[in-house]
Amino acid sequence: MSAPVSTEPVLSVRDLSVSFRSDTRTVHAVDQVSFDLRAGEVLAVVGESGCGKSVTSMAVMGLLPPTAHITGSVRIGEKELAGADDKAYGKIRGNDIAMIFQEPMTSLNPVLTIGRQIGEVLRRHQGLNKKQARARAVELLDLVGIPAPAERVDEYPHQLSGGMRQRVMIAIAVACDPAVLIADEPTTALDVTVQAGILEVLQSLRERLGTAIVLITHDLGVVADTADRVLVMYAGRPVEQAPVHELFADPKHPYTRGLLSAVLRPGGEGKRRLPEIPGLVPSLDSQPDACTFAPRCARADDTCTSSRPGLKAVAADAGADAPHRAACWHPHTLQETVS
Ligand SMILES: Nc1ncnc2c1ncn2[C@@H]1O[C@H](COP(=O)(O)OP(=O)(O)OP(=O)(O)O)[C@@H](O)[C@H]1O
Ligand code: SF4
Ligand SMILES: [Mg+2]
To answer: ABC transporter domain location, by residue (predicted)?
Structure first.
């Protein structure tokens, strides 16, 4: 899949860490995540449940509760968002960056027509009058592939299927043409044929509007079909980053190998969801100076259990900002078959 990709990142995240503190414990939900996203690019974020995917995106969106302690930098173009107050974020959300969630029904207001809900965003952010907002709402419904948009604009959420409601949520998210769209499991609640339609909508947004997309998904088939690059997270930490074809062809981190093995094994092509890897995800109460995957890793040795591996370029001749990086003391080589 191709789309024009500019060189300047529209979203730049550096050393983002998030912990939640209560009287009794501190949960280190996200630990030094960094990535860049350019216009028209799709970054997939994958990892087991609880590895910090949603907390990362909520931190970028400024939507975490006050109990969250956030460090690091989040830049949208020239704007630094870290430390921005609610008022500043209010201007950024919707205009520069928007998010869609897994469950479209809970995010829509059941007593307002979909046209009114899209129109409200346009009136608030872009100062359109009622007539202009309605006309633009019809255009947006058309953009997200809702048939007969001029009629459906007056319908209520319960009159629409789950897939159509998710399209409405996307229309609301992109109403003000944000540079970045974060989609957190946007198709998980939908059946497979409906999922494909939603992914097509995301593809067309990136192609027609140049929207940069962070796509959080458990579905490795979706990653392969949709993403340009992939960020693999484990227990709050980034463990591998790579262009999508490289990640599938030559996964370096044992955790990534574990995730991909079920898909890559002969006959395993039908398995799209993340497989179970033996062992438990570690508690997030501490930040050990060790590889957190060591208890589940067949390659673990004393180095792994006594010092934390940083993300490093995995090709010997690559620079520090190489596109393929892994946080592992003993990364796999291309020659090793995926087991
Ligand atoms: N408000 C909060 N207070 C305390 N801990 C939290 C809070 N929100 C999330 N966490 C913890 O942060 C960790 C990361 O959660 P997160 O929701 O980002 O996982 P995820 O990767 O999105 O998982 P899933 O695939 O299930 O959606 C989890 O251990 C979670 O319990
Ligand atoms: S650093 Fe060691 S324990 Fe961690 S993934 Fe690599 S080989 Fe396994
Ligand atoms: Mg999540």
So the answer is: 13-260
